[in-house]
Each structure stands twice: as C-alpha cells, then as structure tokens.
Amino acid sequence: MSGSSGRGFSAGSARALEVTIVAASLLALVLIFQPFSLGLFSVGAAAIVIVGLLFNLVPLCRPGVTWGALARAVLVIVVIFAVVTALSLGAAVLYAAWVAPGD
Description:
mainly alpha
C-alpha cells in the first residue's frame, strides 16, 4: 500500500475497476434470469461463479493499492477456490463410493 511511490491505483483507475466488477456482476445476473436462451443461461451461470470470486476484490479498489497487492489477493482467492473445489469433488467421489451397490 504505497501511496507515495506513485505505483498504486489512482482514484480514477480504482473506481473504474470497482465499476467494472459490479457491472460484470449485474451482467451475469441478467444472463442467468433472461428467458430466451439456454446458452446465455449457461454463460451466466459460469460468469456468476467468476464474478462472485472477483467481487472479493472490491475492498481493494482504493487509491494507492498496488497491482502487486491486487495480484496477491487474486492468488489467495484462486488457491482457496481450488482447495474448496478439490474437497467438494473428493467428498462427492467418496459419497458415490459409499452409496454404490456392492459387487
């Protein structure tokens, strides 16, 4: 968070990043609730997951926050998502093995 080095976000770029994340979230919601295309719904469903994760970056959309700090936050979010996904898939596999009929 080095505001004096000039390497952090300016007020305009921080606001633009925040507005972009919120706009992407709204677009994903529109895609999910539109009644016209199953393909658009599928894109919206995937986008909801992605922008839901990106929405965690909104608190970092402040002037003076560096790209490095934002990149570290993205890395933490991706690692947590990967761990939760692996645990969920592992639990599903174990549950399937548990309820499968015996040979």
